[in-house]
Amino acid sequence: MAYVRRKSKIRAEVNLTPLIDVLTSLLAIFMITAPMLTTGIPLNLPKGDGRSLEGQEKILDIGVTDKGKIYVGAQEVAFRDLIRKVNAVVSENPKIQMVISGDRASSYGQVVEVMALLRAAGYTQVGLKTDARIMGHDAPSRKGK
What we know:
This protein has helices at residues 17-33, 82-92, 108-120; strands at residues 59-64, 70-72, 75-77, 97-102, 126-128.
């Protein structure tokens, strides 16, 4: 008996079903965990003119709550330790910009004290963060003046 050998075709296909299952699972995980990763303190910011700072990718946010607590980033800091903490952050990243986020209900004096303390320590480039929306009306125009 003669043995006849058949040539079998090799199928080079990629099965995408497991890949799609894994990607869908990862997408669901990221969609659930992303809102939990936002850090910071809840502040009711005052309204501003809607213009944002441009080119400020690295910003140190100093928050003043309505209860008078001071935060550097998401960490609560005592007023007397504020400059020490800011110096530590600036020593790691000398090009960092500072922005003070004062809650709308916080004391104006407290926000000014924080700004004055930073200025006395030699930090002259300090901004104030506001909410981008105007309070239900348009800002006055300077064109008529």
